[in-house]
Amino acid sequence: MRSAGASRCRVRDPTGAVQLAPPEHELIQRAYVYSNSSLP
Q1: How many C-beta neighbours within 10 Å does residue 6 have?
Q2: 23: Cβ–Cβ under 8 A, 6 or more apart, which residues?
Q3: pLDDT: is 1 or 23 the higher one?
Q4: How far apart, in whole angstroms, are the C-alpha atoms of residue 25 and residue 2?
Q5: Distances (CA, A) of 4 to 1, 7, 21, 29, 33
Q6: Please, what is the average pLDDT of the chain?
Q7: Residue range(s) defining the domain that contains residue 13
Q8: Which phi and psi (to 5°) does residue 5 adopt?
Q9: How far apart (Å, rounded) are the C-alpha atoms in residues 29 and 1?
Q10: Is the pLDDT at 7 greater than 50, yes or no?
Q11: Arithmetic mean of pLDDT, 9-17
Q12: Strand, helix or coil at 38?
């Protein structure tokens, strides 16, 4: 895994959210946000 490269490879979405290059981090982030948003 490229820890140094991943930290540099940041993609800025049109929404202004900064996501890491690895899809794993993206899925974890999305899942975390969704789990918090789904809370009543």
Answers
A1: 14
A2: none
A3: 23
A4: 13
A5: 9, 5, 12, 19, 25
A6: 64
A7: 3-37
A8: -70, -40
A9: 18
A10: no
A11: 57
A12: coil
Q: Report how far Cα 34 is from the mean position of its chain's Cα atoms.
A: 12
Amino acid found at 7: S
Confidence (pTM):
0.30
Output the pLDDT for position 31: 82
Number of domains in the chain: 1
| Rounded Cα distance, 19 and 6, in Å | 10
Q: Is 32 exposed, middle or buried (0-12, 13-18, 19+ CB in 10 A)?
A: exposed
4: tokens are 């140094």
Percent of the chain with pLDDT strictly greater than 90: 0
